[in-house]
Write a structure and sequence with these properties.
This protein is α/β, with parallel strands linked by helices. The protein has three domains: 135 residues, Response regulator (Rossmann fold, 3-Layer(aba) Sandwich), CATH 3.40.50; 164 residues, Rossmann fold; 71 residues, Helicase, Ruva Protein, domain 3 (Orthogonal Bundle). The chain has 21 helices and 16 strands. Helix 3 runs parallel beside helix 4, helix 7 packs parallel to helix 8 and helix 19 crosses helix 20. The longest helix has 20 residues. The chain is globular. It starts with a helix and ends in an 11-residue tail after the last helix.
């Protein structure tokens, strides 16, 4: 243990009332900055530089709060967290780290951290506030239960990416939920494409991975079948109910039921959902037998539910029951600092999953990505980057390869030439359909499908063959075709007999 840690253990009664803090970081510059700032607040500060000394210092229970780095000589900060909690250490620990990924945030909170901060520290007042809050609430707050199942990279559909303050708050809330299995209802809000289902899956697979995850889109079920879909029905309960059927509440068991687009749930069904959440029980349609609700319910919406309540389209009591724990996902335009990391992630995904040869993104392309508002949020960014990675002529994505859904600067009604350069691929196809229909001069167009396929298929296959450097196996994998099918198309289109100018 460092001398300062030992000295703090011998503090006299004259120091009573001052917050006693431990700074555990192998970087002496970080320790010096934090010490000066905390001592300016009248705190008593001790220092350690490795995990062994840190754990030894924590064992005495002499600290009101500890700031612990994740990466230190020895076992590391996460292991210090684990050992401290296993030994019953009551000192609240705030993790400090330069690697502020979702996994680090969740893992730190799972192992008992009270909060976490990222380096470099842009605002030392935030460090003081966070540490003081942890110290002040430690005596009253119950210890967070450790989650036995690790999140890892096993999330179905990917993981949340970003280091912005807004997304870090989301990570913290996820960590709080997965660390307390008694939290049985969560509401996730945010615009379309922000990753609401990813948050739901993160919560589920980091806390109940061996149980079912049952997603259901409330807006996609026919109105008259929603109740049966959720709660199940007995044989003969209604016309067409030929046999008993378990609903999603029952199928979910002790897992997670994800109710997407909860704002579209029929108003007449909302009281039954409220009762199920309040009483933790439900009945099948046509039955008097009560079923126990064991699943965690995670609801999501891109609507303003408060406005829906005001318009009497959503029950106020159900809204308040759902939003006990609210996780709001910010739109991508409000966390632009995450764009570089998200872009690199999707480029790597294109390489790993689709055989892309792209290895870099030009500065001009990154600037174009930053200038765009991303109304479709992360989902639109993913589609844009994947398309650019697959169709870029070289191994670097250029600005010309970035084709978002609309121009960041062009007003509505801009000219066709400019729109064609910025519209999405689907929009371009729709434009070509309209042009073919106009050329028909009121007559029924002939062979429209074949004409469109002929326009698209040749350049698509030629471009893909260039990217695959003539390798038919790789090209077939990129296109999602059988190799024999691709070979036949090459022959039919005359591509196989001509030498392609490989980039």
């Amino acid at each position: 243990m460092s001398d300062s840690a030992q000295n703090l253990g011998r503090d006299s009664a004259a120091q009573a009332g001052a917050i006693r803090a431990l700074i555990a970081d192998d970087d002496p510059a970080i320790r010096l900055v934090l010490r000066h700032r905390l001592e300016a607040e009248g705190w008593h500060v001790a220092e350690t530089a490795d995990s062994g000394a840190t754990l030894e210092a924590l064992r005495g229970g002499r600290f009101d709060v500890a700031l612990v780095d994740i990466i230190m000589p020895g076992a590391g900060g996460l292991e210090v967290l684990t050992a401290a909690r296993e030994e019953g250490c009551a000192t609240p620990i705030v993790v400090i780290t330069a690697a502020s990924t979702m996994n680090n945030a969740i893992e730190a909170l799972k192992r008992g951290a009270r909060d976490y901060l990222t380096k470099p520290f842009e605002n030392l007042d935030l460090v003081v506030t966070t540490a003081a809050r942890a110290a002040e609430t430690a005596a009253q707050a119950a210890e967070l239960e450790r989650v036995k199942n690790e999140l890892g990279r096993t999330l179905v559909g990917g993981e949340l990416i970003g280091r912005s303050p807004a997304i870090q708050e989301v990570y913290k809330l996820i960590g709080r939920v997965v660390s307390n299995d008694k939290i049985d209802v969560v509401l996730i809000s945010g615009e379309s494409g922000t990753g609401k289902e990813l948050v739901a899956r993160a919560i589920h697979f980091s806390s109940r991975p061996r149980q079912p995850f049952i997603p259901i889109n409330c807006s996609a079920i026919p109105h008259g079948l929603v109740e049966s879909e959720l709660f199940g029905h007995e044989r003969g309960a209604f016309t067409g109910a030929a046999e008993r059927r378990a609903g999603k509440f029952e199928v979910a068991g002790a897992g997670t039921l994800f109710l997407d687009e909860i704002g579209d749930l029929p108003l007449e069904l909302q009281p039954k959902l409220l009762r199920a959440l309040q009483q933790r029980e439900f009945t099948r349609v046509g039955s008097s037998e009560t079923q126990r609700l064991e699943a965690r319910i995670i609801a999501a919406t891109n609507q303003d539910l408060e406005a829906a309540v005001a318009a009497r389209r959503f029950r106020e009591d159900l809204y308040f029951r759902l939003r006990v724990i609210l996780i709001h996902l910010p739109p991508l335009r409000q966390r632009r600092e995450d764009l570089p990391e998200l872009t690199d992630y999707f480029v790597a995904k294109a390489v790993r999953d689709m055989g892309s040869l792209v290895t870099a993104v030009s500065p001009e392309a990154r600037a174009k990505l930053q200038a765009y508002d991303w109304p479709g949020n992360v989902r639109e960014l993913e589609n844009t980057v994947l398309r650019a990675a697959l169709l870029a002529p070289g191994n670097t994505i250029r600005a010309d390869d970035i084709i978002p859904a609309r121009s960041p600067s062009a007003p509505a009604g801009a000219g066709d030439a400019e729109s064609a350069a910025t519209d999405s691929f689907a929009t371009l196809i729709a434009r070509r359909v309209a042009q073919h229909l106009e050329k028909a001069n009121g007559e029924e167009p002939r062979g429209l499908y074949q004409k469109l396929v002929a326009e698209i298929e040749r350049p698509l296959i030629e471009q893909t063959m260039r990217r695959a450097e003539g390798n038919q196996v790789r090209a077939a994998r990129i296109l999602g075709l059988n190799r024999n099918t691709l070979r036949k198309k090459l022959v039919d289109l005359g591509i196989a007999t001509r030498k392609l100018p490989f980039d």
